[in-house]
């Protein structure tokens, strides 16, 4: 519950709900603004940025893009106020990348009710949120359709929290089980009639992933620079050595290239499939290179400290954990 109250309070005070969406109590603004906010959130805390992206991008975005007018009026205002938190259930235990053609969760219509059966895995916010956007294959026409399921009041809907993750530990992921879950036709996303409609939501949030990985690189660069300026060796900060400066300069060049590409993408139209995919791919590559440089910096520091009899105690922990500015730090623990 601390996760919920803390994250929602901060998000509400910054008016971040539904950023980039017009009307329905959403914060509005351009997609570029949405991107800059995601970048800054990720710079400080990648987990919080993921929580924000799942709720405000994937869950609200599904309703905004694929919901009927009535559904938007009903669900978006409380979600924009962070009173109702959403998740997005697409991935399954055995089907990840292949959900467009191989989804196993089924939806069967009986009059004005749909019956859902199946499992979803890795679903961010699922262990504690209020509503889940569940994607399931209609057994009648074999098309993927979206459903709004109310987590806490729908019989047959259960969530098991996924423990022991190696990264993004603050954002909570769950495995959802749907056992004869009955959902009224009024809760089927009226504009979501095939996987093409699911893909529109994914395309929009892929754009955000590009901004988020740029923000993560910024955070990594800042932490590395700070460490290199503080860590003394041979009586000088290691940042004064050219080989360390070379690594820092390459990191900064990657960060700057990513920022430029994201701004251009924001101007071009973030939902163009080719642009969003190219961006996500190149952002990830730069992020991997920057991570490697950060580790290489750590390794050379380790070598230096290990060979120095006065500093061997640091050898077991050559790089400090990235510190978060106190003001911006959001404590999120259950
Ligand atoms: C922290 C976290 C949060 C997540 N949150 C959510 C969420 O909120 N909602 C949700 O629905 N899902 C979520 N996911 C799931 C995520 O979307 C899936 O992990 C992703 O779709 C990949 O699926 P998979 O892990 O099953 O990998 P797989 O699909 O099994 O892929 C495994 C590997 O094979 C490669 N591969 C797959 N297909 C091809 C192909 N055709 N050609 C070449 N290579 C291929 C992939 O690149 C990958 O390297 C989350 C995952 C994580 C780790």
Can you give a write-up of this model?
The protein is an alpha+beta fold. It folds into two domains: 2-193, Butyryl-CoA Dehydrogenase, subunit A, domain 2, CATH 2.40.110; 197-314, Butyryl-CoA Dehydrogenase, subunit A, domain 3. Helix content is 48%, strand content 17%. It has helices at residues 2-13, 31-44, 46-66, 69-80, 99-102, 195-230, 242-268, 273-306, and strands spanning 86-89, 106-110, 113-124, 131-138, 144-150, 157-161, 173-184, 232-233, 236-237. Strand 2 (106-110) and strand 3 form a beta hairpin. Helix 2 (31-44) crosses helix 6 and helix 3 runs antiparallel to helix 4. The structure holds flavin-adenine dinucleotide. Flavin-adenine dinucleotide (FAD) binds at residues 54, 87-91, 96-97, 122-124, 168, 173.
Which structural class fits the helix and strand makeup? Answer: alpha+beta
According to DSSP, the number of beta strands is 9
What best-fitting shape do the alpha-carbon axes yield?
elongated
Number of H/I helices = 8
What percent strand? 15-25%
Task: Please report the first level of CATH classification, the CATH class of the largest domain.
Answer: Mainly Beta
User: How many whole angstroms does the radius of gyration measure?
Assistant: 22 Å
**Low-pLDDT ranges:** 298-334
How many domains? The number is 2
CATH topology of the largest domain: Butyryl-CoA Dehydrogenase, subunit A, domain 2
Task: Write the H/E string, N to C.
Answer: HHHHEHEEEEEEHEEHH
Can you summarize the main beta sheet?
Answer: 7 strands, mixed
Do you know the CATH architecture of the largest domain?
Answer: Beta Barrel
CATH homologous superfamily heading of the largest domain: Butyryl-CoA Dehydrogenase, subunit A, domain 2
* Helical content class: 40-55%
**Global mean pLDDT:** 85
Cofactors and ligands present? Answer: flavin-adenine dinucleotide
Taking the alpha carbons of the first and last residues, their distance comes to 6 Å
